[in-house]
What does this fold into?
Amino acid sequence: MYQLKVEKTISAGHWIRGHAGLCANPHGHSFRIIISVEGKRLNDLGMLMDFADLKAEVKILIENRFDHKVLNEDYTFTMTNPTAENLAETIYHMPWSLPPGIRVSEVTVYENENNCASYWEY
It folds into this structure.
């Protein structure tokens, strides 16, 4: 199995509904997002896929939707809190346009340099 990882940092605001602490207040993060894709076969060039193609997909799906936005206003987070965990799951389940035989294997979202949440499925 081969795996590629790309990173994207976005700036976004949010708050956590029902939180008893400071996170109940609107605040922002520079979210560092790591997207991992995997597949069993390399293409004729010896690549799982071109990093440029994966980065373009990240720009379309993640940057355009979430960067410099208020996550609570996104339709995904009208009924659930925009936590790092829920953001990772949302990104994992986005309609990725990847080459045949390649899938998103894991998404990790850092709220800061020390705290992150990951989502993957078996």
About this structure: Strands lie at 2-14, 27-39, 69-70, 102-110, 116-119. The CA atoms of residues 13 and 47 lie 36 Å apart. The domain at 2-119 is CATH 3.30.479.10 (Tetrahydropterin Synthase; Chain A).
